[in-house]
Amino acid sequence: MPSIVGPIKINSVGGGVVNFGDSFYLSPKSTSKTNTGSGALNTGDFICTNNGISSTNPFDPDANDQNVTANA
Fold this sequence. Notes:
flat
């Protein structure tokens, strides 16, 4: 099925896959976890972030978040 892709702005891609249009098979090849406070990962041209007190809890009680096994 054809797709129409509008205006796109990509500043950087670090080790990832950028796919536009039709795709047959996409799956994650690696995973990672990041703990940040509120408003820390906002991206864009004009950002106005108003935060009060921000606290991040990095405690992760489960062993696996996203398994990468059996990905081709």
